[in-house]
């Protein structure tokens, strides 16, 4: 298993399927990306494009009919040895989770257990992985609450989750995730449920903590604005597949895939979409809607909605091709775009 | 005030209090005023819980208001009896956020639209079928979708049906409560375009509720910024976006992420959380998070200052932001 | 917390007041003159009149209600016509078998249901789950008297391990009395375990899909701990409700089971009271049983307050 | 944000097709149908009249002449089981109808009109405080034993259970945008109640009704067993068992067959209800 | 034969009262006969024999004066000694409260204490059944202390019997313990009479109302004695931990006709019913095996002095549907429902009713069954408007006058001149042998006028532990004289 020294996580052609009696949902069907140490990789895509399934596959937390069909998930732990998480047994995951890879979720309201105080829940994380006394775990939990900038941390330690606001809870989740200083943090839409002002606080916090703890972040989102704010690298997903990966500046400057291009064009932008007299120009919009993942066309999944489509698009799944220095794209016409 | 013409809808001093479970009072909307001119769209923005939905629904009398006036076409809707209100129902319509629960899953599309047509006293018979087909084509659906059930449509299509239902009674005024928030970005643009077109085509007036600032900037002529049930600032979009005079609006605009990494700003996000509407701060409700707060802010509810050109702001230090 | 408790107490009081009213109404809908019915055909008009007076039947309905309430407040449930002792005493004399029967059945039911429910939720869709679910449904379909008869036939008559009926004679030791309860308790316990199993499974399925369970797993916690500490504790809240509900259902079950096993409990007292037309006893039993149900619900509400920090605002 | 086009596809209108896709529910449906058909056609199918006495042939084991043997008066157990099914199912069905009439009304009123919610809910709570058999016994004792009174009593017993379910669903539906849309259109409240609310509570109602059907059959059997149910000359499974238990030794079939009939009917109703619930209304699993 | 031991006796239920004057229920009699005693009781051959009386009464020539000598040295459970004052007060209470006492009251002029140890009863007309009435254990003429005689209902359960009441937990048990100061008669036990020996320390009567539970309890050996088992359970009881006790014959089931009102006020209808019924099938359905019943139209079975076959021709074991049809046509019957009032307290009543229904319908009757609780039945049968036939049973009573139909006022209200002629002659005659002949006339009139239909004879089944000995088979089992063996 080869993995460049500076890469902490490399997902290679991952396929995670949900097999039912009649149909197979290919939720993740050929996802490939690399995450460099200390960097933030943003995964963007519309609802149902397989972002969460990808992150759960990495954590080994897939729910029942879901299973990794093929592919590799190479992960470099603290000691420098590389593991293929796609072949991990549940028991092996246990030592890894929390300690090496931690995760925060979209819904801060429900991701904390309502029956335990936040102090308990952070302390539990520490006690699971390190031989600490109760008092010590509590002290460390308090430290973490301070790290995530919860005001008056000492008095919030014994609060129950329902006594906190969404933003505070998300901070607690982050404190818990970082309690054992993992080297990789997976954040699955951590700000989607929050208000813009709180979202800004959390993004800010994550950036600062990254500088402080040095962890790499896999940041799942569907908001391109957030991507622009936080990511070093961006992976764009569509219908379970990676359609493009590029450094964030490159991606926003030039999109190699028609889908990425459409995605950027269809969010309203006053400078672009409003005339000087206030009249509106029609927004660019991608026609049609995402195909159901149980019945994907054999070729490019975006083809039916694509403005650049040619007959060849329907024939075979386009491969991921390198188009720029650091950009890969899954489009046979990337070079023409 | 310098009205060009009398607005179609003018809301004054609207407030709504809810009784919460344990007998405490939620001040969902307090003393909100704004007006909607004929053929224009007013955007209502604010963080969640700021009372946008409540304001929109009270105007339509879907919730009974606790106080204030809503003068629509010269009549105060709040002073009407439930029966008198009936006559106005078809002139005021609403579009919802959730495309899944806004259509009765057990009714076919023609029945859903038919219900609206009944309300408009549209005669039964073959004309009705044509009208349903017409409505469907107005929102970009095919007439043979009429016999389907809602679950057979995608989210975007359902939202179009919701719009068709609102249009069926040929209303003058529509409250659109976050109509695109639940949609995928790629579909969102389709619906926004449709709404923009229809507004022009039928000369509709619209109260457009959203929390996405860029959408409001794109679609709305005027904007009302709410925080914790109160209006912080309102005025023509261009003015508010370009030259906001309220620290909250400024903070909102500054913190909204823009999809452009080159414009990544080093900025200080607002500190703290939104206070509970159960006991809002005294004086200016925003003062607890306001970077410009001074002790005086706690004492009085800031009076609404009229800055000309229909631009109003509720901040005692608005002059310093000029 | 105190406030919440007081709130529940008030709710309980209102429900109890309604219960009392309902019982009053049920007894008053009895067609005909209860006094005449009670005294039988040989009674003279004078006897009936005096009984009417003693029962307060000559007063107007609202007055009767007030008297009845007054009696209740003094703990007076009336006097049994047949047994000629106060109803409260009659019920109290019969309380022991019913009390222990209910407790044992509940213990048996939960001892079966909780592990089975939790495991079948955890192993959802497996053979174990299917077997457990089907068995639970089967158990819920068996009339308790039928199961009781089968048990009696097999374990008491054929194998002779238990007594078929009764509660031991006078002076029977506690152990002896409890021995009489084994079969009825298993009958009722098995049948009511069905409901709790299904509920536990549903509640667990619900929680197992909750985000915080995923959070717990993402911490690197062992499965057992995730299930018990994080999932089960949350599922316990709805499960508590159904256990309370089962306690009430058990009283229904006890009526039939006690009759089958000849246990001198409240259940068989109720049946005899119906057969003997002992209206005050029926009335008193209804009231006491419903009151207990309300009380159990109240206790469960209080337990919620202990278990669930969200409700103690 | 998570709303996908796919999530909306979960509801298909064709109920039968969907039931058929679940084997246990299908088995339940088939058995229920068979039981209903057999009971309805009992007079045609039954080889003997249910009350036809032939004392000389009493207590005979199952044979070709008497598929389920004969009872203590020489009556044909098979014929009696079939005819009892009519009573048991009839009572169950009538109870469901009666309980639905009360329960749906109460539930809709409590759920839809805020001002009636508290009083009606408290009333429901109070009625639920009485264990089913106990309340039924008391009511039958008060009203006198007869099929009608058993139905009334059990109907009153189960109505609050239905009312609860209807209320809970109504509370949810009341707040749904499509109800609000109808109000915005000025649709009259009774029409909203029927067209939008009632129509959408049918799923949980149907599920609950199935369980109540099952429970009513069990409860009726219990009442008959105790001898406080329907008049004993109308054969029911409960009375058959209560008589049969005297002959458990010599003629176990008298008790076995009606017992099995109850178990089979109730079990299949429950399977059906469970299946219905699984795809009609998963939330319902939580309340009773 | 060792003293000591405790037995549990399963009874058919909780007695409504422990005052045997207040009730005619067999159950009350069975239990209370251990507590209280009467002046006379029945010997093995069902003749009256003295119990608290020292000797048989001296009856005056005209049959109107009974002089009864009392035993001395008999103590009540409260320690006081029985005197004639107690006896007079008790008998007066009996005449006031007990249904049989009321019956006797009609013929009794006075009851007076002649001296401390003698009581004199004066009648206004000769009345042969008096001694039997005084001997019965239900609605019984028990002797209680004078100071308790005013109690109604009885509150102090003080008698002179061999056992006294220790504790009563309703529906659980009635506990009797040996009365150590009991003064037994001398000599040998003789039926209910003679010496009463107290071996057992304690007798507990445990109500087990459910017959099946009683059977199971018997099979499991839970009780020393289990009363009133369904006869079908004979095989099970025989193979269990107990031994069956069969009392053959025990009594007779009877269909009582309402002669006062409704269909059955027409004697032709009653005759049609008499012809239609098929006792053989009815008894078979009710009692399962021929070992437990006898098809017998005579009102007393063989073995009783009263037995006679006189006039029993209309009693047809298989019924006579054709004859019934003819009688019915003659009566001009037009399909009004014949209401049969019955209960399931005694399952065999109900089974007989079901078979009867089948035969009556075959004969052309429309039958309406009113199945009610026993309590309701006892209530409803008092109302002539409610029924045409009700079903009951009775043990063979030692004195025919005690049968319900003999009284004009008992439900059925049979009161015709022919009846009065036969019955009064029977009651007034005190010579036993002449009375036997007079009873033939009574049976004749019963068959002529059909005030009731006797279905047949049936046996009773009880079960007792093999360790329990000394129990005499009896319709009213008693447990003095009984003892436990190892
Ligand atoms: N347990 C499951 N069984 C079947 N299909 C599943 C399951 N979980 C997820 N899927 C399917 O996998 C696809 C990808 O889901 P995923 O949750 O990864 O999307 P996502 O990109 O995270 O979307 P969102 O933005 O809504 O979170 C979806 O179409 C979903 O329907
Ligand atoms: N029926 C109600 N009972 C009690 N409180 C309510 C009710 N409806 C709304 N509220 C409260 O009123 C406040 C305003 O709610 P509203 O839904 O109007 O906010 P919003 O601005 O639309 O938020 P969002 O962006 O989340 O839709 C909130 O604090 C909410 O909790
Ligand atoms: Mg996701
Ligand atoms: Mg809203
Ligand atoms: Ni102005």
Automatic annotation (TrEMBL), chain A:
What terms describe the molecular function in GO for this protein?
Answer: ATP binding; ATP hydrolysis activity
First-listed, main subcellular location of the protein, grouped into a coarse class: membrane
Question: Record's SUPFAM superfamilies?
Answer: P-loop containing nucleoside triphosphate hydrolases
Coiled coil stretches, renumbered: none
List GO BP terms, alphabetically: peptide transport; transmembrane transport
GO-annotated cellular components: plasma membrane
Query: Residues in domain ABC transporter?
Result: 9-264
Report the membrane topology from the UniProt record: Peripheral membrane protein
Q: Where in the cell is it found?
A: Cell inner membrane
Name the SMART domains on file: AAA
What UniProt keywords apply to this chain's record, in alphabetical order?
ATP-binding, Cell membrane, Membrane, Nucleotide-binding, Transport
Taxonomy, superkingdom: Bacteria
Record-linked CDD domains = ABC_NikE_OppD_transporters (cd03257)
By its UniProt entry, which PANTHER family does this protein fall under? DIPEPTIDE TRANSPORT ATP-BINDING PROTEIN DPPD, OLIGOPEPTIDE TRANSPORT ATP-BINDING PROTEIN APPD
Family membership noted in the UniProt record = Belongs to the ABC transporter superfamily.
Q: Which NCBIfam families match?
A: oligo_HPY
Please report the name of this protein according to its UniProt entry: Peptide/nickel transport system ATP-binding protein
| UniProt organism field | Devosia enhydra
UniProtKB/TrEMBL annotation, chain B:
Q: Name one Pfam family in it.
A: oligo_HPY
What region holds the ABC transporter domain?
9-253
Q: Name one GO cellular component term.
A: plasma membrane
Q: Which superkingdom does the taxonomy of this entry point to? A: Bacteria
Q: Which UniProt keywords apply?
A: ATP-binding, Nucleotide-binding, Transport
Instruction: List, in alphabetical order, the GO biological process terms annotated in this UniProt record.
Output: peptide transport; transmembrane transport
Record localization? Cell inner membrane
Q: Is Nucleotide-binding tagged as a keyword? A: yes
- Coarsely, its chief localization is membrane
UniProt-listed CDD domains = ABC_NikE_OppD_transporters
GO terms, molecular function: ATP binding; ATP hydrolysis activity
Q: How does it sit in the membrane?
A: Peripheral membrane protein
InterPro entries for the chain = AAA+_ATPase, ABC_transp_ATP-bind, ABC_transporter-like_ATP-bd, ABC_transporter-like_CS, Oligopep_ABC_C, P-loop_NTPase
Question: PANTHER family given for it?
Answer: D,D-DIPEPTIDE TRANSPORT ATP-BINDING PROTEIN DDPF-RELATED, TRANSPORT ATP-BINDING PROTEIN
Q: What is this protein called?
A: Peptide/nickel transport system ATP-binding protein
Protein's organism:
Devosia enhydra
From TrEMBL, chain C:
Alphabetical GO CC annotations of the entry are: plasma membrane
What subcellular compartments does it reside in?
Cell membrane
The primary site where this protein sits is membrane
Q: Please verify whether the record's keywords include Cytoplasm.
A: no
Family matches, as CDD domains: TM_PBP2
Similarity remark: Belongs to the binding-protein-dependent transport system permease family.
Q: What is this protein called?
A: Peptide/nickel transport system permease protein
UniProtKB/TrEMBL annotation, chain D:
Query: Start and end of every ABC transmembrane type-1 domain?
Result: 89-273
Q: Where in the cell is it found?
A: Cell membrane
- Topological type in the membrane: Multi-pass membrane protein
Protein name in UniProt: Peptide/nickel transport system permease protein
Q: Which protein family is named in the record?
A: Belongs to the binding-protein-dependent transport system permease family.
Q: Name one GO biological process term.
A: transmembrane transport
Enumerate the SUPFAM superfamilies for this protein.
MetI-like
**GO CC annotation:** plasma membrane
Q: What is its main location?
A: membrane
According to the record, the segments passing through the membrane are 25-49, 89-113, 133-159, 205-230, 253-273
Which Pfam families does the entry mention? Answer: BPD_transp_1, OppC_N
**PROSITE patterns assigned to the protein according to its UniProt record, in alphabetical order:** ABC_TM1 (PS50928)
Q: Which UniProt keywords apply?
A: Cell membrane, Membrane, Transmembrane, Transmembrane helix, Transport
